[in-house]
Amino acid sequence: MPTRRSARAATFTVLAALVVAAVGCGAEPPDLFAVDRSGSIAGAKLRLEVNDGGTVRCNGGEPKRMPSKLLLDARELQRQLDEPGVAGRSLPPGPTSVLRYDVRTEHTRVRFADDSRNRPKTLDELAFLVRQVAQEACGLAR
Q1: pLDDT tops 50 at residue 92
Q2: Domain range spanning residue 72?
C-alpha cells in the first residue's frame, strides 16, 4: 500500500510532466512574412522575418521584440498580401527605382520596387512598415 509521501511524489511527478509537456509541445508562432530589401543606397540591404509572436529577426540575427502597434500593422498587412490583386504579383521596377522588395508569406510571394507602376496601396504600406521595423525594432538607420 502506497504511503502518503509516495502518493504525493507520484502526483508531483505527474503534474511536473504535464507542465513540461504543455510548455514543450507549444508550437512556435508562425512567421507572418519575410522581406528581402535591396537597393542602390547605403543601408538598403535588409532581411526581416516578422513573427506572429511579436518578434522580428533582422539580417539573420537573434529575435527582437517589436512594438505592439507594428505587430498589429504587420498582421493586417499579412492578410492583405494574401488577397487577390496583391498575392503573387511581380511588378517590375521603374527607371528611378531606389529600393526593391521581395516579400514571402506562407501562401504567396510579391516582388516590387518603390517606383513600380500600378502597385497596390498595400505595398506602399508594407515598405513603410519595413522601414519602421528596421528603425524601431532592429535599431538600423534605414
Answers
A1: yes
A2: 29-136
